[in-house]
Amino acid sequence: MAPIPLSQIIAAVGERLTPTERRIAQAVLDDATLLAFGTVSDLATAVGTSRPSIVRFATKLGFSGYPELQNHVRERLAVRLFRPSERIRAAGERSMSTRSEMDQSISSVFEAVGGPRLAAFAEKLAGAEAVWIISGETSRAGAHALLSGLSIIRPRVVLLEDHTIGKDLAGVGPRDVAVIFDFYRYRQTAVTSAQILANSGVEILAITDGPLSPLAGLTDAWCGLHVPAIGPFDSSLPAVAMAELLIAEVAVQLQDLATERIDRTEKMWADTGTFYDETAPRASGSILGGEEE
Fold first, then answer.
1. Would you tell me which of 25, 178, 205, 219 could form a disulfide with 132, CB atoms 3.0–4.6 Å apart?
2. What is the percent of the chain with per-residue pLDDT over 70, rounded to a whole number?
3. Which CATH number fits domain 101-271: 3.30.160.390, 3.40.50.10490, 3.40.50.880, 3.40.350.10?
């Protein structure tokens, strides 16, 4: 069941609110993100009041304190902002993606791996005995991008699938590394698998959306990305961009091995005729070649 709207809760106690509490109520009704993602001090500053006034406002609404009120609002926002069924119904009310959101999402990727972090992540992937990749549904494009590139430049890269995950997890070792791609509404299989791997001593690299993610609690090696909505669904762009940056850095660190593996792969592609050959003669009357003169 969806959480009760904050407007209803405020309406039920409206007559008992002080003028200051009414200003707080109006501020959070106008912009619920002030409450959902800000601290007590943040909200107090935005409204122009004190921290104790914010706490009293929360208790007057029937919550044990500010954290419980904040969690309630976050749950409500999650229903409205993160479910495709709600997003598609909101299509006529607001633009479901903006250029600024996309720009912000790409910026968040570079910020997440700023300084030495990208090299440190890549070093773990380069030195692992095996790399295991786990993904939620909307982050799957990033997982496939990492699998595609990483498996060419180093051995033993595995994308875990739901239907074989139990069998595959039995083969992990303590010198392995697992990369987990998942964003809110976190996939249960991804979180459970990450917990199992962490308990087995496997190093976890989490590509997620912030410190509130259950994946961030499993490892210090996590990156929080901004994932905007494109239509009713989360954008795959940040996860793919992160995967490509990791692949490029691992290739640098595994220069000789990566070069050798790419050369062998190119030879296999040539031997098996993997790619279309523009120099090959075409049959007369073919769709591409047309009738010979």
1. 178
2. 85
3. 3.40.50.10490
